[in-house]
Design a protein that fits this description.
With 97 residues, the chain is of the alpha+beta class. The strands form two sheets. It has a three-stranded antiparallel β-sheet, with no helix packed on it. β3 and β4 form a beta hairpin.
Length: 97
């Protein structure tokens, strides 16, 4: 079985353009949801044997960079008491809605 890549790609023809692990249809969102639900990396790798630990770390790093960019953009905007981004509400801290 061919192992997944370690790059994140977005293609409108794959999972409606959501970021996925290269060579798969596994979204970054799916990996993060599993981690957030308490699954460990070994459990994720068991569920998706073609992934590697490096693929999972790449997905986590990608998400961190997206949040970092969003945070910087919000810092640059003035006079916004709060802002909704998807299901996350940002005030002085991030809380799940």
């Amino acid at each position: 079985m061919k192992k997944a890549g370690t790059h994140i790609i977005s293609n409108p023809g794959i999972m409606m353009g959501k970021p996925v692990i290269e060579g798969t249809r596994i979204t970054v969102e799916n990996i993060l949801e599993r981690l957030g639900a308490g699954e460990t990396i070994p459990q994720i790798l068991e569920a998706y044997p073609h992934l590697t630990a490096e693929s999972v770390y790449t997905a986590i790093n990608f998400a961190a960079q997206v949040i970092k960019g969003t945070s910087q953009k919000l810092k640059n905007e003035k006079n916004l008491p709060h802002r909704h981004i998807g299901h996350i509400e940002i005030h002085n801290k991030i809380t799940m809605c």
